[in-house]
Amino acid sequence: MTSSETAPVPPQPRRPSSRPSLASSSRPPAGLSPRDWASHPAYLYEDYRSTQLRGPTLSLVPLAAALGEMRRPVFGDDSVGKLDHDLTRNARRNGEPIGERMVLAGRVVDDLGRPVSHTLIEIWQANAAGRYVHKADRHDAPLDPNFLGAGRCLTDADGRYRFLTIKPGAYPWGNHPNAWRPQHIHLSLFGQHFGTRLVTQMYFPGDPLHAFDPMLNGTPEAARSRLIADFSVGLTEEGFALGYQFDIVLRGARCTPFENG
After folding, report:
1. Which neighbouring-strand residues pair with 244?
2. Would you say 104 and 248 are in contact if contact means Cβ atoms under 8 Å apart?
3. Residue 149 C-beta-side C-alpha neighbours within 13 Å
4. Catalytic residue positions, numbered
5. 75-100 tens-digit pLDDT
6. C-alpha gyration radius of the chain
7. What are the two backbone dihedrals, phi and then psi, of residue 52, each rounded to the nearest 5 degrees?
C-alpha cells in the first residue's frame, strides 16, 4: 500500500470547548422556546481546526428582545422560479447533469411540532464528483456544465418541501491528513422569526466517512442522528431517482442542530 493509499485514521475523540456564555439576563424572544444549546456544536472544537481561528472566545452579547421578535422576511411564490427546486434541470445547458439522481424531501416544524408553512428553504452542494461551482474550490475534479448545485423552494401549507438533485460526491479538505468530507447537502431556513434561523448540513445514511468528520462529530452525540437523512422507498421515483427524507425542527429540545462550518 502506497502512502497515498493509506487509510485515514479517525481523529481521537476530544471534549468540545464550552460555548461562550450569554449574559444571565438573556431570554428567548416572546413566543420562542429557549435554544437547546446541548444539541448544537460548540463554537470551538479542537478537531475542527478552523474553529480555533474564528470561534468567539469572549462572552456573547445578547441582542435586545425586540430585534429577536421581528418576523422573518416574507417570500411569495413569485420569489421562486418554477425550476428552482429541481437541480437536475435548473442549470442545463447542453444535456443532463452527471450523477445519481435523488429526491430530497421532508417537513419543517417548530418546537411544538406545528408545520412551518410558506418558508424559504435554500440548498447548495457539490456535484457528483465532489466539486462546488465556486472560484475558491480548487479540488482536482471536473465541473459539470449542466449542474449548478443550488436550489430553493417554499414549504407548503403542511410544512413540506421537495427537491430533485444529484447525489453529491465526497471531497478532500485540509483539516487533517487525508481528510475527506462525507457526502452532504447544505440547507438554510428562516422559519417564522429571525430567532428560528437555521443553517445546517444533511448527511446520508451509512457513509463510512462519518467516523472521520469533525464537522459532524463536533455535534453532540445525542443530537448527531438528526443530521442524517433516512432512505425512503416512498419518496423514490421508480426508474428515476432514489428518495431521502430529512425532517427539520426549528428550536426546542428536538431541534435540528446548526452546522459548525
Report:
1. 104, 231
2. no
3. 22
4. 132, 171, 181, 184, 186
5. 767 779 999 999 999 999 999 999 99
6. 19
7. -70, -20
Q: DSSP for 190-241, please give it.
A: -TTBGGG-EEEEEE-TT-GGGGG-HHHHTS-HHHHGGGB-EE-TTTPBTTTB
93: cell is 445547458
Instruction: Point out which residues pair with 152 in neighbouring strands.
Output: 122
Which stretches within the chain are classed as H helix? 51-54, 65-68, 214-217, 221-224
Find out whether 84 and 144 touch, Cβ atoms under 8 Å: no
Q: Determine contact, residues 6/177, Cβ cutoff 8 Å.
A: no
Q: What's the one-letter identity of residue 163?
A: F
The C-alpha torsion from 110 through 113 and 114 to 118, rounded to 10°, is 50
Listed residue (60, 42, 53) closest to 215, CA to CA = 42
pTM metric for this prediction: 0.85
At residue 242, φ and ψ (nearest 5 deg) are: -80, 155
Residue 241 in contact with residue 255, Cβ under 8 Å?
Answer: no
